[in-house]
């Protein structure tokens, strides 16, 4: 985030999912949401409503099946090539195309996630256990990077609360810390001191338990591509993208507010909360509007950024009474 980003070329028209597909999907999801609201979904496998969005035919990654979630946005997903080709994953370099290039060789199996700290039942999860811990859902979320761009990504995963409930946090667990892989043998970006490694992020417990906070294992109908944080990452759609740590190896429950990697690097720029807020500018970037990746062409459409990235109805109550300028 300390480097400039360059504009990408327009996606080829053929790579944009046809409007009709979006429209069909939108109707399906609306129907699912209505049905869920009225209780009509009871007893029906929700996967019957829609299959996950498919990756390109050329992709050889293992496929995942998942039920469509009524928590998905109806906005058109960003093309697969942008979701998997325009990334921030500084362990592999700071250019947007570095992760796609250098994360190819990341070894994602075997993989374990240690869960420890203020919990009654500390334990280690293997990646195959994590895959089966709760029913997989497709959640199409708006994502907003603090650099001023956004995407719409069809994630696959389940609420982090499913994992948290397994380990039973103690009364002292006020925050949760995510530690991501830091292996200099596999990650050329670790030779740079741009951040203190490993990449550490954190949430307050009520944020972590919120149903929108997703433990993601896939996207576009397949297991996570390495550059997107394989094999397991967080997705917190109402916060700037850097709160969503990739390639997680440790989850720690703690009493004190975690010192995150970005806070450590520039405390006046990256607060702990980092909720998307169009009214609070980053020292170097206004946050009032954004550029949707995959849409930028000669028209250079700019979209207004929404409070809590459009998830205010669901999450604003978490911050009732807090000064969001101080707690940025
Ligand atoms: N481990 C790790 N996680 C990370 C980052 C990183 O550099 N390292 N970058 C963050 C930032 S700034 C963003 S915007 C998102 C990007 O996720 P995506 O490439 O899957 O869209 O990942 C976040 N998670
Ligand atoms: Mo970001």
Automatic annotation (TrEMBL):
Residues 107-262 form the Oxidoreductase molybdopterin-binding domain. It comes from the Bacteria. Keywords: Metal-binding, Molybdenum, Oxidoreductase, Signal. SUPFAM superfamilies: Oxidoreductase molybdopterin-binding domain (SSF56524). One of its GO terms (biological process) is protein repair. Its EC number is 1.8.5.-. One of its GO terms (molecular function) is metal ion binding. PROSITE patterns: TAT. Residues 1-50 form the signal peptide. Its cofactor is Mo-molybdopterin. It catalyses: L-methionyl-[protein] + a quinone + H2O = L-methionyl-(S)-S-oxide-[protein] + a quinol; L-methionyl-[protein] + a quinone + H2O = L-methionyl-(R)-S-oxide-[protein] + a quinol. Predicted to be exported by the Tat system. The position of the signal peptide cleavage has not been experimentally proven. Part of the MsrPQ system that repairs oxidized periplasmic proteins containing methionine sulfoxide residues (Met-O), using respiratory chain electrons. Thus protects these proteins from oxidative-stress damage caused by reactive species of oxygen and chlorine generated by the host defense mechanisms. MsrPQ is essential for the maintenance of envelope integrity under bleach stress, rescuing a wide series of structurally unrelated periplasmic proteins from methionine oxidation. This is Protein-methionine-sulfoxide reductase catalytic subunit MsrP. It comes from Zeimonas arvi. The gene is msrP.
């Amino acid at each position: 985030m300390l480097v400039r980003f360059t504009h990408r070329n327009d996606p080829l028209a053929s790579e944009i999912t046809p409007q009709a597909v979006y429209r069909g999907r939108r109707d399906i999801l609306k129907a699912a949401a209505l049905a869920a609201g009225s209780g009509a979904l009871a007893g029906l496998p929700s996967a019957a409503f829609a299959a996950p969005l498919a990756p390109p035919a050329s992709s050889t990654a293992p496929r995942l099946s998942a039920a469509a979630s009524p928590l998905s946005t109806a906005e058109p997903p960003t093309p697969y090539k942008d979701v998997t080709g325009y990334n921030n994953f500084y362990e592999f370099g700071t250019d947007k195309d570095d992760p796609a290039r250098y994360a190819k060789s990341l070894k994602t199996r075997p993989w374990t996630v240690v869960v420890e700290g203020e919990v009654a039942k500390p334990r280690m999860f293997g990646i195959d256990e994590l895959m089966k811990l709760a029913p997989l859902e497709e959640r199409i979320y708006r994502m907003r990077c603090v650099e001023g761009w956004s995407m719409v990504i069809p994630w696959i995963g389940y609420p982090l609360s499913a994992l948290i409930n397994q380990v039973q946090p103690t009364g002292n667990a006020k925050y949760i810390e995510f530690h991501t892989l830091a292996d200099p043998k596999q990650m050329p970006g670790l030779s740079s001191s741009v951040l203190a490694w490993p990449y550490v992020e954190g949430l307050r417990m009520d944020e972590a338990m919120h149903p929108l906070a997703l433990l993601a294992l896939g996207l576009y109908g397949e297991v996570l591509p390495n550059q997107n944080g394989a094999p397991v990452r967080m997705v917190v759609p109402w916060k700037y993208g850097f709160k969503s740590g990739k390639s997680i190896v440790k989850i720690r429950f703690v009493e004190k507010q975690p010192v995150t990697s970005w806070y450590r690097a520039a405390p006046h720029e990256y607060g702990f909360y980092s909720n998307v807020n169009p009214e609070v500018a980053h020292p170097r970037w206004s946050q009032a509007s954004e550029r949707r990746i995959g849409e930028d062409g000669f028209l250079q459409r700019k979209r207004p950024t929404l409070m809590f990235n459009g998830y205010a109805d669901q999450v604003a109550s978490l911050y009732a009474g807090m000064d969001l300028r101080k707690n940025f």
